[in-house]
Amino acid sequence: MGGVLAALEPVQIASILVKAGMYVSVLLAAGSVINLWLLTELDAAASRRLRRLAAWSAIAGIVYSALNIALRAAFFYGGFGGALDPMMLQIVLSSPLGLSVETNVLGLLAIASIVLDRSWTRLVAVLGVVLVAVSFALRGHATGDPRLALSTLFVIHILAASFWIGGFYPLYDMAGRGNEAAARTVKRFGQAALVVVGLLVAAGVVILVILAGNPIAVLTQPWGQFLMLKLAVVALLLGLAGLNKLRLTPALEETGDGNPLQSSIRLEAVAFVLILIVTATFTSTVAPEHVG
Hints:
Layout: H1 2-6, H2 10-38, H3 44-77, H4 86-93, H5 96-112, H6 121-135, H7 147-175, H8 180-212, H9 215-218, H10 222-255, H11 259-285
């Protein structure tokens, strides 16, 4: 793993940073919409802030998606000059990545409409969430065999991850108030998380088994070592989530003090971003399209 990182070229480093930014912004945009629909206890001010977060995250996601296309063209060209080369850009746009990004951008535009807060915008934004999730099933590992199974698992994985990262801001916002509505919001999220996080982990495990074939043999490969690092951070994240549900949420209900829960949410957010950076790194460098 260390050798892979030491051998990174400037275009690859830029691609990793852009892809990580895209992951964060796109999942945050989709997750904000999911939680806006789920957390009915949010008051008008909290809902308004969450709609704005969804819209700004969607805009950032569109920018990162465009940069991702340009940097893939630069990678094919062998230097940053390829980012503006019409032929290289056409090749990328005609590839599965191009179709994925186009679908992703369309979904993000739909999500951004939620900032208008009209009767129709929530439905349009939900459709945007579906398009964003489907876009991840149109490229990379999801296009391998068995195609239908992998595509379905990736959609589930993306929706579940979006739900999780999209919950950080509204939970942090409400926990700071320490009132009954805050306690109900956190409790409702925790109940949904039992199912959604279970789906996230299960889908991830099945994807790993399909792609890797023999998970033990994976550990000898650089991409397997990246994967183990990711799983270690996921374990930390699950531990924090368990702490929130079993101790900090009941403490919020009893005392009205949301500071410990807010501190835990900040750590969760950092861990989640770290997971996405690791994912961006190994999918940009050593992850195979299909192993096994």
